[in-house]
Amino acid sequence: MNMHLILVDDHKLFAKSLEISLKGQVDKFEVYTSPDQLMKVLENRVPDILLLDIHMGDYNGFEVAREVLQSYKDLKIIFLSGYDLVEYHNRAIEIGAKGFIHKNISLHDLVEQIERVRGGGMIFPRSSSDIVQLTAREKEVLQLMAEGLRQQDVADLLFISRRTVNNHIQTINEKFHVNSTVSAIVKGIELGIITLNFRT
Prior knowledge:
Layout: E1 4-8, H1 12-22, E2 28-32, H2 38-44, E3 49-52, E4 55-56, E5 59-60, H3 61-71, E6 76-81, H4 86-95, E7 99-102, H5 107-118, H6 127-130, H7 136-146, H8 151-158, H9 162-176, H10 181-190
Parallel strand pairs: 1-2, 1-3, 3-6, 6-7
Antiparallel strand pairs: 4-5
């Protein structure tokens, strides 16, 4: 297919495998294991599609994408990740990416989905549009509860009343269709909205 792709992924084996697999399928396929030189590369040649990993050592693919899109707002970016979390899908959409594809996809499906994005489509797992978004404050409350803080501790830390904290928790439970804080925390971890990080 007449297409120029750039892949930025620090997993060298995966990147090399994809490069070998796509040989003959695309006109030009460039691989970089770090985003270090990406902006300089883009100054000389902008690809049809930029494929980005999310976790790349010291680099975060979301931040890389945000920076790239500030200079090349029409560039089509697809995140290619082994982490299939709803929160990641939503962040990709917010940033302005055109797709999010899990790394366990078959080569045939990958090529097909890249083609769809190049043709103007968007590729995101269905769950991205199904999940109810939490507000920034709700995420904050849930994260603190996940770290083992009591409602009063959360209230003191955020300079809000305990009643307000309780209201946030009830709203989160309703959005997640659960009936306890523990269930909400579990759901939040599953969706990638919060991380388990106990305070000492």
